[in-house]
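Researcher: Re-running this chain for the archive, since the previous output was lost when a drive failed. Same request as before.
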Amino acid sequence: MTGSVRGRTGVLVMAHGTPSTTAGIESFYTAIRRGRPPTPELLAELVGRYEAIGGTSPLTERTRAQVEGLTAALDAVAPGKFVVRFGAKFTSPTIEDGMAELADTGVVRVIGLVLTPHQSSLGSGDYLRRAQAAATSAPAPIDLVPVPSWHRSEGLARLLADRTGAALASLRAEDRSRPAVFFTAHSLPVRVVAEDDPYPDQVTESASDIAGLLHLDDVDGLTWGVAWQSAGRTEEPWIGPELLTEIRRVAADGATAVVVCPVGFVSDHLEVLYDLDIEAAQAARAAGMAFTRTTSLDDDPRFLDLLARVVQRSAAAAHPPLVTGSTTPA
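Model: Regenerated structure tokens:
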């Protein structure tokens, strides 16, 4: 145990994770499928997607930069108060590894922050359940303070609105006459959200907040809406409308361009670089429309400052104050 950090608040940043090499794709895919190995056809398809974006995803590097940036942002506003660690859902270091590292520092309270803005039982809920189990099994008691969602944190809609406005402005004049703007997030099985799961409503709230800031309803010829992407290859129904279907629909309605803001994602990775930049772009262009998307948040300092404020507010709202030793508040 590192005694010098006793009294500090831990922060466990959690993200999806990605295989570091092509050789690791099969085991990664098996983990995503909850231990069920993919068929040779499914594996070949996924390998092909990774090859199309360069062989591996940049998610590991992007997430590392986000964690380092968040650490720096917290240190800038609250020197010495927070100790930050990372845990991935499907790769190493795992969520359990990250919590164990925090336990070794002696913290007694941990803020659980998932790098996905919206709350869902299969998304952020899955991460936080694992974090809670790891906190409960730690050698010394650890109080987990979960952040279920942060999609309406101050400044996030403005950041995404700025990016959406820039994407619209990047279109050629002839493509701006009837653009269709889609705000997308990762689809989930319908059964997951059938029982009061807040995920679809929160994604819609994000879209509405951004559209409101940009006054999209007042732009002649422009349409906007929510679409879902990256559904799993399973037989059961997933949340719709699906983005590729929507692209074909607006093309038939006379749209001249498709602009996508992936509000459910915070960095470049397979679902952005392949599902949007390759698959959706090809569908739009095949239908005679221009295509563009917003730049990802990645390690934008404004985004990391926003996350630092989320952590600080969560720490301040945690009650009752915890104590390490006799009198030092966490």
